[in-house]
Amino acid sequence: MQRSIKDHFIKGMRYPLAVDAQATSPVPCEFKVGDLVTFTNDYGVVFPDMIVTGFSPTVEHGRFVYFDASAWWFPVSPASLKKQVHAEDVHETSDVECSDAPTG
Length: 104
Fold this sequence. Notes:
The chain is mainly β. It has one domain. It has strands spanning about 35-40, 45-60, 65, 80-85. A hairpin with a 2-residue loop joins strand 2 and strand 3. The protein starts with about 35 loop residues before the first strand and ends in a 21-residue tail after the last strand.
């Protein structure tokens, strides 16, 4: 029996993609595929730098977001995720001069 493997929506993932994963959320959600997030589990353990890989087609116990982790097959609740800022989204402020700054 040959097992089919579903292709990832984004490249470079370490773990398989859940067979029911889809690119759109089943309900309105602030996350999208490719978002960099921090996951906090039920015991308060924090896992930064996770990438959203897809969404379950249904919401079960509030869980429907998949991310690239060792439990790739188990969706999590969006309440347990916090969106991280991508490095390219951070604006450099080192060249900004403040005219009101006191001088030496």
